[in-house]
């Protein structure tokens, strides 16, 4: 092979974006005319990837006759020490013209969306291309037919799970509500009732904890498809990280671009949720939609529009789907952050006196609605059955069995550094800003630091005395504790207290 470079791992984590590093004086860079941020095809034997080029200056860490690959590029190429690779300009992506058409207001069919998804997974599209696509689809720019087409394209591009024609229940929360960690409880109840519920969940991207982050405190979640199937066949349910299963894999690429842009797109949200549910083999899906001024869905009109789109697209995909609108005005439970939320989950399952009643009630409500969705059930009987399974200890036993099947249960730890944040004056707690309290928990280190976060000490409606603790900050390092506390002290409106005359 001519004009090749020796491959070395860079040791640099670029998340899902494959990156190749070349010295500015290397002969391949000069002969091909590569410039920084160029898209480069890397061929190594019969394996190839497309990566973004970064140029390393003279006197830096990379030799002229080497090319370094980011961690994701090294894995995607299946590179090994000593491999040599050829580098060339890739063919222009087929879907570039479709992205331009969508940007100018044209409608795309399933073939168009399929081409975009395919080029996304092959890394033929740069982050700029993906940002253009996400922007072109933002707001209400995807109609119902396009949303169905995008959902199908995303689903069929990855793995799909089949459960032999059996009824498969699933749930999803639209989000924006800190501490709303109902999923492990609901899975335990539904599986204890004898139903299949193979729950794949995400890690946090902008929140203090995702379901996978919280579950990982108690059991392994990075299972492959074979391991997931073994757990579900043995116990009826699981709670695992969906990122390693290649179920609707393009969604992770789109989310990576959507989050910094902070766009609100009904069509893309629906495609994201339902493509993964359909790929996981779900037949009956319950959507929990918290509504509140600082939740993701802020009004009942917005909830109605999103619910209608979810229902119509779910029907087109053959899913039996129900939408449950819930209170999203304040955090749920006491803990915000992976380990603190795990403690709440275990308290509810173990029926301890300190179990957060709002988390218990919400989990029972969702489990009851999901049980009612199953065929051959008495409508309205689901809640009572959920209560019986939780109160009898059957749900706790099922949860522990699921944890054991996923690799073994472990108890949540506690953060070494804590400090209370107290009320500046007396009053009645009228509201909690979900977004700001989540921000404080993230500054304390959550979810990267599993023990970090916030423990709430008062609830909406409580009378609070001056100097009474509102919440307790938890951090794994003193620096993060100080940083979060400084931000918290500079904020107003995180907790709304009615003024009281002395």
Which labels suit this protein?
single chain, 502 residues, alpha/beta, 4-stranded antiparallel beta sheet, 18 strands
DSSP, total strands: 18
Task: Report, as a whole number of angstroms, the end-to-end distance.
Answer: 84 Å
Overall, the morphology is globular
Q: Please tell me how large the radius of gyration is.
A: 25 Å
Count helical runs: 18
Helicity level = 40-55%
Percent range for β-strand residues: 15-25%
User: Runs with pLDDT <50, length 5+?
Assistant: none
Question: What composes the largest sheet?
Answer: 6 strands, mixed, barrel
What structural class results from the helix and strand content?
Answer: alpha/beta
The average pLDDT is 94
Strand order, sheet with most strands: 1-5-2-4-3-6
Question: In a few lines, what is going on in this structure?
Answer:
The protein contains 18 helices and 18 strands.
Task: Characterise this structure.
There is one protein chain. This protein is of the alpha/beta class and 502 residues long. 41% of the residues lie in helices and 19% in strands. The chain contains 18 helices and 18 strands. The protein has a six-stranded mixed β-barrel. Strands 12-15-17-13 form a four-stranded antiparallel sheet. Helix 11 packs across helix 12 (300-316). The protein starts with a strand and ends in a 5-residue tail after the last strand.
What's the structural blueprint in terms of helices and strands?
Layout: E1 4-9, E2 19-23, H1 27-32, E3 39-44, E4 47-56, E5 66-69, H2 71-77, E6 84-88, H3 96-103, H4 110-121, H5 127-136, H6 144-156, E7 169-173, H7 183-192, E8 197-201, H8 211-218, H9 225-235, E9 237-241, H10 250-261, H11 266-279, E10 284-291, H12 300-316, E11 320-327, E12 335-336, H13 338-350, H14 357-373, H15 382-391, H16 394-406, E13 417-422, E14 427-432, H17 434-443, E15 453-456, E16 463-464, E17 469-475, H18 478-490, E18 495-497
Parallel strand pairs: 1-5, 2-4, 7-10, 8-9, 10-11
Antiparallel strand pairs: 1-6, 2-5, 3-4, 3-6, 12-15, 13-17, 14-16, 14-18, 15-17
């Amino acid at each position: 092979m001519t004009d090749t470079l020796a491959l070395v791992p860079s040791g640099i984590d670029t998340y899902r974006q494959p990156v190749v590093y070349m010295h500015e004086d290397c002969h391949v860079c000069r002969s091909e005319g590569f410039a920084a941020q160029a898209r480069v095809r890397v061929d190594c034997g019969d394996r190839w990837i497309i990566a973004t080029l970064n140029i390393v200056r003279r006197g830096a860490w990379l030799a002229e006759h080497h090319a370094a690959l980011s961690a994701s590029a090294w894995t995607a190429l299946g590179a090994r020490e000593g491999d040599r690779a050829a580098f060339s300009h890739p063919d222009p992506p087929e879907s570039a013209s479709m992205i331009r058409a969508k940007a100018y207001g044209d409608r795309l069919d399933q073939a168009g969306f399929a081409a975009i998804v395919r080029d996304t997974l092959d890394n033929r599209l740069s982050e700029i291309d993906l940002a253009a696509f996400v922007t072109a689809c933002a707001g209400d720019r995807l109609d119902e037919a396009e949303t169905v087409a995008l959902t199908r394209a995303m689903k069929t591009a990855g793995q799909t799970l089949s459960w032999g024609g059996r009824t498969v229940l699933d749930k999803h929360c639209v989000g924006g509500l800190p501490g709303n960690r109902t999923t492990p409880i609901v899975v335990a109840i539904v599986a204890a009732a004898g139903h299949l519920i193979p729950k794949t969940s995400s890690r946090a991207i902008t929140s203090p904890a995702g379901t996978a982050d919280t579950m990982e405190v108690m059991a392994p979640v990075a299972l492959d498809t074979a391991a997931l199937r073994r757990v579900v066949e043995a116990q009826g349910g699981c709670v695992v990280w969906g990122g390693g299963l290649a179920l609707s894999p393009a969604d992770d690429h789109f989310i990576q671009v959507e989050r910094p842009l902070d766009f609100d797109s009904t069509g893309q949200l629906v495609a994201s949720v339902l493509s993964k549910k359909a790929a996981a083999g779900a037949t009956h899906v319950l959507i929990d939609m918290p509504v509140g001024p600082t939740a993701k869905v802020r009004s009942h009109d917005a909830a109605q529009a999103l619910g209608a789109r979810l229902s119509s697209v779910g029907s087109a995909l053959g899913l039996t789907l129900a939408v449950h609108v819930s209170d999203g005005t304040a955090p749920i439970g006491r803990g915000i952050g992976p380990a603190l939320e795990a403690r709440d989950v275990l308290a509810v399952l173990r029926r301890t006196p300190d179990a957060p009643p709002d988390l218990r009630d919400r989990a029972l409500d969702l489990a009851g609605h999901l049980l009612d969705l199953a065929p051959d059930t008495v409508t309205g009987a689901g809640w009572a059955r959920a209560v019986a399974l939780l109160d009898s200890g059957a749900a706790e036993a099922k949860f522990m069995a699921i944890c054991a099947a996923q690799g073994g249960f472990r108890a949540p730890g506690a953060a070494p550094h804590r400090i209370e944040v107290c009320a500046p004056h007396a009053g009645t707690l009228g509201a909690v800003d979900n977004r700001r309290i989540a921000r404080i928990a993230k500054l304390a280190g959550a979810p990267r630091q599993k023990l970090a976060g916030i423990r709430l000490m008062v609830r909406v409606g409580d009378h609070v005395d001056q100097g009474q603790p509102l919440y307790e900050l938890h951090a794994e390092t003193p620096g993060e504790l100080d940083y979060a506390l400084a931000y918290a002290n500079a904020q107003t409106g995180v907790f709304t207290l009615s003024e009281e005359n002395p």
